[in-house]
Design brief:
It catalyses: N(6)-dimethylallyladenine + A + H2O = 3-methyl-2-butenal + adenine + AH2. This is cytokinin dehydrogenase. It comes from Solanum tuberosum. The protein is α+β, with helices and mostly antiparallel strands and 542 residues long. It folds into 3 domains: 146 residues, Uridine Diphospho-n-acetylenolpyruvylglucosamine Reductase, domain 2 (2-Layer Sandwich); 118 residues, 2-Layer Sandwich (Uridine Diphospho-n-acetylenolpyruvylglucosamine Reductase, domain 3), CATH 3.30.465.10; 237 residues, FAD-linked oxidases, C-terminal domain (Vanillyl-alcohol Oxidase, Chain A, domain 3). The protein contains 18 helices and 18 strands. The protein is globular, with a radius of gyration of 23 Å. The structure holds flavin-adenine dinucleotide and 2-acetamido-2-deoxy-beta-D-glucopyranose (NAG) (4 copies). The site of flavin-adenine dinucleotide (FAD) has 37 residues, from strand 3, helix 8 and strand 10.
Length: 542
């Protein structure tokens, strides 16, 4: 059971641990002879000027050239790519970030990557021979300022969402509206992508409940922006893949936090019933507070099969009760209803029955439990220790995330879920619908066309000591899935996109490509920022 829950939640905090704090800070000297030599050989000419530039850097925070820091800056959760930076910087605040960028501008080659918690999977937070800014260690993150009258919180760009949650709930009984499934992610990191979970059908992604940002642009300027003030920068940065500025502060809207949640899973054998019910729930006025969907394998596999569905050890999944014609995969909706301790239990139970009463899930396959709101949002953390122990989060994670238009989701199910992925991905497969109208199209995120589109997430894990062939197979299967979508003309976009060529990036952005490039010209004309996204190269914006 523990193993199963672990995979369900898949947490990674290894890279986020205390290594940087304990690392020796040696200003302006290379600690790793190997990396130093490589840099000298490769970049002899520029090295001299870079060294000079870094010597002039006078920040309140620290610059770390040590092996531990460099190693941290060159790793991410994906474990598929590794690029060594020249140094890792722990800023005290936005002014330090500005200094770093302005100094990088003086060199012809230096790039700067903000690193949130390094939970990217394809090296997006890395900077080859550049400067990595460790946002999570930024001193300003400790300030989490709640404004009770206007119901918002001001937080540092490197703050972890889990810390924001704990502070807002325990001190004020308030909480942000829209979450990710896992909260050891930074505010700036998710806002640079979107940030989606089971609340997004209602409140939009996390980018939709931000009203103000403080950003240091690629020009080295610190600018406060919002819908009404410097709005072009504001919308550029939201979902901007770190290309336009570094988020040093965000103002996030709050709502009253409930005490408790009823957490429910209901199982389907037919994809049409599953999507019908999911779409009904996300488009109804009266509905659950959280709606997600999962795909699981029709087998006894503890990680990907029947045992992965029940919510506590009192419940069991009895496969003999499944319909005879059940296919290779099954589906479940995961639903949550908020409530407070003083609410009348019978009223709550009636509400649950009323909402579930509209659904066509399989009889005998309803699982539920009650949990505090915090425990639910931190559900992934519960197994963090166990996960570390088993060692499989230091191994690579070739994850694939995408959004697919409703019009193509049935075909996707037939061709991809029931066929290519019929044995699972050795980790959770998520799929649930979202509403395009809850996303602001002025942000930099690109979405498929339909008003209803599905998130599909393949959260792959390897075995403890994976062979290279195992990882290659996973990567190849991801490519097969993407190629299948292209070949069949599916309307889809990658979430956390990863492409290496300009042609592919152009296709990704489609008719928004020009806008994206214009924004780059305006806010990061030297293409200093987030080189690990591989959209632009230094000094070269096309
Ligand atoms: C276990 C796990 C569960 C996850 N669950 C979800 C989920 O439920 N929903 C979801 O939407 N996502 C989820 N994610 C993905 C997550 O949103 C991304 O990894 C995202 O990149 C945030 O991670 P991070 O803070 O570590 O950012 P990083 O990976 O460090 O950075 C991501 C990108 O943003 C840039 N960046 C980082 N900080 C800033 C900043 N302050 N300003 C500007 N640019 C910045 C970086 O340069 C990089 O290009 C999950 C990831 C993991 C590993
Ligand atoms: C760097 O260049 C100088 C000449 O400009 C040369 O003397 C030196 O050997 C070079 N160093 C390396 C490590 O290549
Ligand atoms: C399991 O069931 C017993 C009695 O049926 C109950 O007391 C206990 O709280 C349940 N455990 C969980 C985790 O729900
Ligand atoms: C959850 O709480 C409700 C009361 O709000 C109670 O009726 C129900 O039995 C509880 N369910 C579980 C699984 O503990
Ligand atoms: C955003 O949506 C509005 C309303 O649907 C539309 O008029 C506008 O052209 C869209 N803007 C972009 C940039 O797509």
């Amino acid at each position: 059971m523990g193993h199963q829950i672990f995979l369900l939640v898949c947490t990674i905090a290894l890279l986020a641990s205390s290594s940087l704090v304990s690392a020796e800070v040696v200003k302006h000297s290379f600690h790793s002879p190997n990396s130093a030599r490589k840099i000298l050989v490769a970049e002899n000419d520029t090295k001299k000027s870079v060294d000079g530039i870094l010597k002039e850097l006078d920040i309140k925070g620290s610059i770390d050239y040590g092996v531990t820091a460099i190693s941290l800056g060159s790793r991410d959760f994906g474990g598929l790519y590794s690029e060594k930076p020249l140094a890792v910087i722990s800023p005290a605040g936005a002014d330090d970030v500005g200094q770093v960028i302005r100094h990088a501008l003086q060199s012809p080659t230096l790039t700067v990557a903000a690193r949130g918690n390094g939970h990217s999977v394809n090296g997006q937070a890395m900077a080859h021979l550049g400067l990595v800014i460790d946002m999570k260690s930024m001193a300003d993150n400790k300030k989490i300022d709640v404004n009770v009258n206007y119901m918002y919180v001001d937080v540092g760009g490197g703050a972890l969402w889990g810390d924001v949650l704990k502070h807002c709930v325990s001190e004020y009984g308030l909480a942000p509206k829209s979450w990710t499934d896992y909260l050891d992610l930074t505010v700036g990191g998710t806002l640079s992508n979107a940030g989606v979970s089971g609340q997004a059908f209602r409140f939009g992604p996390q980018t939709s409940s931000v009203t103000e940002l403080e950003v240091v642009t690629g020009n080295g300027e610190k600018i406060v922006c919002s819908n009404s003030q410097n709005s072009e920068l504001f919308f550029s940065v939201l979902g901007g893949l770190g290309q336009f500025g570094i988020i040093t502060r965000a103002r996030v809207l709050l709502q009253p936090a409930p005490d408790m949640v009823r957490w429910i899973r209901v199982v389907y054998s037919e994809f049409e019933d599953f999507t019908h019910d999911a779409e009904l729930l996300i488009t109804s006025q009266e509905t659950f507070n959280y709606v997600e969907g999962f795909v699981f394998v029709n087998s006894d596999d503890p990680v990907t099969g029947w045992p992965s569905v029940p919510l506590n050890s009192n419940q069991s999944f009895d496969p003999t009760l499944l319909p005879k014609k059940t296919g290779p995969v099954l589906y479940y909706l995961e639903l949550v209803l908020h409530y407070n301790n003083h609410d009348d239990p019978s009223t709550l139970n009636m509400m649950v029955e009323k909402l579930l009463g509209k659904l066509k899930y399989l009889e005998h396959f309803r699982f539920e439990t009650n949990l505090t709101y915090m425990d639910f949002l931190l559900r992934v953390d519960h197994v963090e220790e166990a996960a570390r122990g088993s060692g499989i989060w230091a191994t690579p994670h070739p994850w694939l995330n995408m959004f697919i238009s409703k019009k193509d989701i049935d075909a996707f199910n037939r061709i991809v879920l029931q066929n290519i992925l019929k044995s699972g991905v050795n980790g959770p497969i998520l799929t649930y619908p979202l509403l395009r109208s809850k996303w602001d199209n002025r942000s930099s995120v690109v979405l498929p066309q339909d008003e209803i589109f599905y998130l599909v997430a393949l959260l792959r894990f390897t075995h403890t000591h994976p062979k290279e062939s195992e990882i290659k197979q996973m990567v190849a299967q991801n490519q097969e899935v993407v190629q299948t979508c292209i070949k069949n003309g599916f309307d889809f976009k990658l979430y956390f996109p990863h492409y290496e060529s300009t042609v592919e990036w152009k296709r990704h952005f489609g008719d928004q490509w020009e806008r994206f490039v214009d924004r780059k010209r305006q806010f990061d004309p030297k293409a200093i920022l987030a080189p690990g996204q591989k959209i632009f190269t230094r000094n070269h914006i096309l």
